[in-house]
Amino acid sequence: MKRFGILVLALLAFVAPAFAQVEFETQARFAVLTDFESGTVIFQKDADQPMEPASMAKLMTLAVVFDEIKNGRLSLDDQFYVSENAWRTGGAMSDGSTMFAELNSQIRVEDLIRSVIIQSGNDAAIVLAEGIAGSESTFALMMNELAQDIGLTGSHFTNSTGLPDPDMYVTARDLATLARHLIRDYPDYYHYFSEPEMEWNGIRQPNRNSLVEQGIGVDGLKTGHTEASGYGSVISSDAGDRRLIAVVHGLTSMAQRNEEGRKLITWGARAFERVAAYPEGTVIATADVYGGEAPSVGLVGEGEVALYLPRGSRRCLNAQVVYTGPLMPPVTQGEEVAELRVFCEDRLVQTAPLYAAETVGEGDITRKATDALKQLALGWLP
User: Fold this and answer.
1) How far is residue 263's CA from residue 26's CA, in Å, rounded to a whole number?
2) Signal peptide span per the entry (predicted)?
3) Which of 35, 57, 306, 323 is 20 to 30 Å from 199 at the Cα level?
């Protein structure tokens, strides 16, 4: 087994009066709150535990659709047929979320997208999957491939709708990462998430994410529910001076889902102040590289690395940089290789990913021999 490299940093030293640590409790079984700009995790509760995604899996469907459009393989004006499979599995007779699409009709991609987002239309999601990939099973392969590309490490998708399947699962952290990807990489389509309603086939349906109409800055993204998983939501808000992304899941009712989501996103916006810790490009620490052309690589954040401290609580903080090390060359510039963990009185208060500041290629025979001696002396490798 490789050892874990842990570097302890003297991050900041603030002296303050006695302060009661700001806590947050949620009835959600799974939850995470992240800062959109940096990806910093502000709050987490079982964020890496597998859970049934329900209709929140449709965010991955949308990511594939938007990626197809962005790369010129699909247009908003393209039209797809409503197959019998889509009509039966996701239509009005399915007793689930539906667009009420008519069998054998043709529907524009843009209308299908709006239905998936606003109405959570299962039929619309299946029509998109079949139109793009020919079948849902092939489309699921595309979902998993893109999921891997954008850094989802604890999720697996088997269909476009989120309908129950024992082989499909996600984590709250992955859903937050996915939401960040959708907002950042496809800004031209984000406005769909805040549309209040949609009418199709003479039936008007409100946006299932009712938080968008509560005036608290929420403008996305997706709700979900099944009997087994409970109620969940992926939420984004630009209230305050920054955008936050929250995920809550495993709740017992729509009312509880709305309340716990509202509480988490509001708490994140109001209870913290932003403190710049490391400007963009600052090397925060270094990580050992075994047999590389350089013995170590600098670690930087994605842009500026900021801390989010409970208001009025500027106290002494400690941080650790954690990575599985030593790293093996080649290490590519921009590759995520470590994590910054910030503690307050031995309590983990936030994490942020760290990336290689430069590329480190494979070293020459002398470098490898030197590192081999370190291996014997320090027990780097088995």
Assistant:
1) 8
2) 1-20
3) 57
CA distance 110 to 116: 10
Catalytic residues: 55, 58, 120
Averaged pLDDT for residues 53-81: 97
**Chain segment 185-213, per-residue pLDDT in tens:** 999 999 999 999 999 999 999 999 999 88
Which tokens sit at 205?
A: 């349906």
Nearest 5°: CA angle at 179, between 178 and 183?
120
Structural domains of the chain, ranges and CATH numbers in brackets: 3-21+276-378 (2.60.410.10), 30-270 (3.40.710.10)
pTM: 0.79
- Is there a contact between 7 and 321 (Cβ–Cβ < 8 Å)? yes
- What is the number of other CB atoms lying within 10 angstroms of the CB of residue 187? 9
Residue-wise pLDDT for 14-63, tens only, equals: 322 222 334 688 999 999 999 888 787 888 999 999 999 999 999 999 99
Angle at 163 between CA 185 and CA 118, to 5 degrees: 50
